[in-house]
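Why predict the complex rather than its parts? Because the way molecules touch one another can change local conformation, and only a joint prediction can capture that. The input here totals 547 residues.
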Amino acid sequence: MSAVITTQGLTRAFRNHTAVDSLDLRVPQGVVYGFLGPNGSGKSTTMKMLLGLTRPTSGGITLFGRPLTPASRIDLLRSIGSMIEAPPGYGHLTGLENMRIVQHMLDLADAQIDKALATVRLTAHRDKLVRNYSLGMKQRLGVAMALARDPALLVLDEPTNGLDPAGIEEIRTLLVELASEGITVMVSSHLLDEIDRMADVLGILSGGKLIFQGTRDELFEHSTPDLVIETPDPGAALALGITATPVSEGLRISGITKERTAEVVRRLAVAGVPIHEVRRVRQSLEDVFMDLTGRGGLL
Amino acid sequence: MLRAELIKLRRSAIWPIALALPLLAVTTGTINYANNADMLAGGWAAFNSQVVMFYGLLFFSLGIGLLAATSWRAEHRGTNWNLLLTTSRRPVTLVLAKVAATAVSVAFMQAVLVVGTLVSGAFVLRLDGGVPWQLVLVGAISIVAALPLVVVQSLLSMLLKSFAAPVAVCLAGCVLGVASVTSVGLRPLSYVLPQAINTRALNLGSTALTGSGSLTPDDVLPILLTALGLAAACVALGVAAIRWVRLR
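Output of the joint prediction:
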């Protein structure tokens, strides 16, 4: 799959700290790329650099196979819709007037504006002043502004920030639909659940460094879920010298490989410790994320 | 791009400013003229001098500072800057569109001044004589003369998030402008200081300011050419500022 965005050692340093450190991103074409990381991990700075809004201290960016330079930036931006940090918009104007501003700035056709408003289901509210919009409507207007130019790449920074569950679901469905139409969507979030349910590829950022990049399955492959051994006699198991944490069902062992699991089970069976069940704990993305950040990443 | 900027002017707070300042000048000028009618001979010329005296020294330039600051305030709110800078337009287009939109509101302000002066002179003061065409001409000249200040204030308001700071700078310029047009020693400054250029343009043919010049090519052309040259230089500065300050 060809890459829409690649970065090579992308770094942005400020006087006191390095916000983004040697990032090698690869965003394939036509996917939802979930850009995940806690607040302050460098997501917005990275996205600003991808749009040419902030200059990297070092490293390079390639978009659609072309290096991003001051000379190529304007041409590349024609294919990139974006919303960084919060939705833009002029509160004293209506939704439609805001869209008309985008239309005149980009020389777009009326049909493109109508389509973008319809896509985010704002057509019925287009004549309302934006200052009277709900947060969800403002977010959707921001997405419509980004969509109006019919972009090949959509860069959205925390588009679900502050939305209620229904609003989050709406944006999530929209982004998945857009990706199915061939638009590459790069979407950032600090909320793992949001990304978990829409992203095909994940990039996880922590402290400015990319600690994982790959599919969801690849991520789970890298992580070892805890092992739970259900036994009514955990004391007997611990007496055998097995390193484990007693829990209500029996024992819980962290970071244990398949081979070590077999060895532990064999020792318990030989010692006559009753075993009712041996299973891996089902992990959420959050568990994996915490596991990763605790271990310093996989890259 | 200009059409986008003109849309932003709808329901904007610039209109009350553009309406209030010239009306204030017309009102104070009318009261002044009515109270001193015995001393002020000359009908329309004397009345117009009363209107533009304080307007030319302070209100007009300060109004431009307020209009530019109000216009840029909307861009500093939220993430509208990101929207502007990802439009695939060149920085020079952004600067020119904003300057042109602010100039439109300045033109409106001048139109209010001219119409207000004519209405007040004709119907309130009931001045004799035909409608003085000079008023309209000075109004039009002063719009061109205002361009350097429109660009400078636009540039300041673009770079400074604060609403008050660029207006304060404008006010300081007004004070310096008054000094430059009233003092022989500082007179050369009045040819390059945008606020002073405004004062000189508005007082063309006026009897209120000594040495204000008349509506002849010899007096008008230097003002217009200096204004256009200064405005062009400031636009170039604005473009460089967007490239090096906003996109760092």
